[in-house]
Amino acid sequence: MSELFYQLFELLATFVEGFVVLTVIGNMCEKRFSRLKNFFFTLLFTVVYTAIITYMNQLQLFSFATITVAILFSFAVNFILHKGNLPLRLCSTMITWFFLHSFEYVVTYSVVLSVSMKSSIAEGFRTVLMWGTSRILFILGGKLTEVILCIALRRLCSSIRKLGNKNLLMIFFVSLASFVALNILMGMIFTESLVVMQLATIFATFFIVVSIVSIIVAISLNVRYEKEKRETVLMAMTNTMMEKNFAELQHSQEAIRQQVHDFKNHIITIGGMIENDEGAKAYINELLSVSYSQAQFCNSGNKVIDSIVNCKITEAKNLGIPFDHRVILVTPLHLSSVDICAVLANQIDNALEACSRMSENENRFVRVEIWQKEAFVFFKVTNTCVDNPFGLGKQLRSTKNDPSGMHGFGIKNISRTVERYGGTLRNEYKNGCFTSVAMIPNNE
Questions:
Q1: pTM beyond 0.85, yes or no
Q2: How much of the chain, in percent, has pLDDT values that exceed 90?
Q3: Domain range for 320
């Protein structure tokens, strides 16, 4: 009767372990079925888990093969009962087993050490493994701890699925390495051999060092990822604002040109009314010729390009920098207005910035050329500059002293936009001139 009771108790302990594992994994993933159906399937698979693990424990107790089968089984059940990508499934399965075994080892070896202080380590293991009151209390304490942790960490587990794939994979590999190291370490520590215990100490120290280095690397990668993410968001916001500002500027320029056109018509009409005043007529003709000669605006047919170039013409004039442009578009552009701003406006801004650092008596100029060839559109901006912007390396270096750390932002913006379209960006410095050429596919 007592042997049957112990067997049933062992089955119940294995059942609780399986149910806790599958439940914790389920809390990290999104359920595929309703709550009631998911609970039913969890119970069903827990019964299967109990049968498999019990059979393998009868073949060999505390076998790594048994642990491996248990992990693979729970991973397979994860695919059946829950939704989510592969990194989430791997992470949720591995981190569950790592913490489960960690707490089991803490409980097990705490009991072993407490008993071995009075006798020996072998006696401590015999107390845990041999059926009796001590083993029943030991199993009850261990399984009760697992259930309490399952309930306490439920809310924390649900936040795992909010992590990105990179973080999930990082947690998976760290948990896997920790799980393997934990099992090896625990097998080495409790031995009568002093040499093995010394090796275990060395192994533990090495693993701690590796873990700390891994955490530092992970934090560094995460900081880099967050920085790139902030830059991407900021670039998108900046490009959108630029596109909006240039659109508003285009409307203002059209209104001004319309007013100038109407004003000229009024002047012509007044000139016709003044028949005998030759001086007034001469002045009017001179005024009209000056107005037309100063109207050096870009009129390519693309409103975004026109508004950007016209705005930069005015900016270059205020800076005293000669500005030349040639825009030939034979077919409509299929680039978004935001991306045109990201490329062209930043190219011209960089050119004006470089020229503004030169003295007025130096040969300063900015030249903008835009044309189409086959299925590509080319944005080329050439400008003079003080020195080689590449320095000693192949990477462009910013000349701005920006305490906010946003220097080089325009260069990154151009590069990322061009890459997103599958185009190429070529920057070169030759004979005191810097040239930036962006070649972008003009596909519908």
A1: no
A2: 16
A3: 234-441
